[in-house]
Amino acid sequence: MMPRAQLTTFLIVTSFLSTVTYLGAPVHGGVLTSYDVSSLDIMSKIHTDHDATTKASSDFGHIVHATPNGVFRPSFPADIAALIRLSLSQPTPFTVAPRGKGHSSRGQAFAPGGIVVDMSALGDHGHHTSHRIDVSVDRMYVDAGGEQLWIDVLRTALKHGLTPRVWTDYLRITVGGTLSNAGIGGQAFRHGPQISNVHELDVVTGMGEMITCSPEVNSALFFAVLGGLGQFGVITRARIRLEPAPKRVKWVRIAYSDVHPFTTDQELLISKRASGSGFDYVEGQVQLNRTLTQGRRSSSFFSATDLARLTGLAIDTGSVAIYYIEGAMYYDDNTAASVDQKLDALLEELSFVRGFVFVRDASYVEFLDRVGREEQNLRSAGAWDVPHPWLNLFVPRSRILHFDAAVFKGILRNANPVGLILMYPMNKDMWDDRMTAMTPDEDVFYAVGLLRSAVAGGSGGDVEQLERENAAVLELCDLAGGGIGCRQYLPHHASRDGWRRHFGAKWGRVADLKARRLICEGAEWFGL
């Protein structure tokens, strides 16, 4: 990385000289001998004002902060390529880090002393956002810019009666961001993560090359970038598979007081993968006893009466936690008459606490954008822009009961977290192992998300306490120490050895690509 003072001087001098060059003044010697007009044009897109750099110095996590020297606002993908080449032309290249919506939690999209690329600026030159979202109805795909939000991809596809197959729970994050990680959600058991539903990519590599890749063309780059944590390039376009969109959803939550039937039923549900059988979406949540007995008295799904009943269940059973399976059954005009019967038949196969079934009927968009509505509630309450020391893990199926006992009934037994705890299984054979994303080596593994917030004045307000609990969970999971053998999802590691252990058997391939300079120097991942 170019030293901060050196880069600051570089920006000041070149910004001034780019102005006089446009005025027709000659440029001689000095710092510009290796720069042409195109380089100066790139420099003119770097913003160094306080507001720009301050915004780029924080993220959704609000845990760490780092200030860049500038924020780059590209008009076209070629601008990003030119910026990277400009960095490489320096005696000591400066860090270039792409940032989508800044939804990372550990500063993964930061460029301390370097340049943050504001991906939202792509295509923002007099055109509507859909300018970089193009649907092919005949071939059932959508081309979406890496900077595009999934909510906008959804809205555009629905105009044609189509939809992507897999969704993250929150839609106001970017296409490039989720594909650089994996993109998981309740549909992944049937269709795999979002990265398993991509036909083609445009990528700007760490050498500043613009390359189109697919499973057939430039395949090594294609598989490296998907789930590659931004290490192998910047995704500027993705071609994503579509399917016919449903109109409505039976949105269901069913309660358990015991983890054993909860996990057994979840695994039964994800085994029903044929289209038209079972749920179309399967996730799960863990609600610790104290969050029921001492937490808020309503939610976006449960009414106050529902929560009172669930609190009574926790007290009556003495359970440390209440577990929910969250399922969704899609339907349209042709299947509306039979959906209730199909749902009833499916529920008969499950072993939840009888009487604790909660069903909502929602439009397809209302269901998919459920977290967007919750965001508005949290913003109104001043509980959105707070520290989020989130921890996301993939836990092997063989160890999930051990994890439950050690974490929910041990480390977090007396916790009263503000936020969610997710826990749901996925099928490994729906993931392509040629991609860089890492999962446990078992046929079924669980996504566990400790999505907790440190809200001032609340019992979850102690960031340090939440961090200590996260550290205890990670120590439990440490495979090197004979632990559970979890993999971090949305990982953050402070050392090369940490990354080596994360990538495991794929480390050799990662190191090889780095040696070939396909990797993005200084980048940790795409900032969602």
UniProtKB/TrEMBL annotation:
UniProt superkingdom: Eukaryota
GO MF terms, alphabetically ordered: cytokinin dehydrogenase activity; FAD binding
Annotated FAD-binding PCMH-type domain residues: 64-245
GO terms (BP aspect): cytokinin metabolic process
Annotated signal sequence range: 1-29
Keywords on record: FAD, Flavoprotein, Oxidoreductase, Signal
Enzyme class: oxidoreductase
TM stretches of this protein: none
Pfam families (alphabetical): Cytokin-bind (PF09265), FAD_binding_4 (PF01565)
Cofactor: FAD
EC identifiers of the protein: 1.5.99.12
Description of how the protein assembles with itself and partners: Monomer.
Recorded family membership: Belongs to the oxygen-dependent FAD-linked oxidoreductase family.
Name this polypeptide is given: cytokinin dehydrogenase
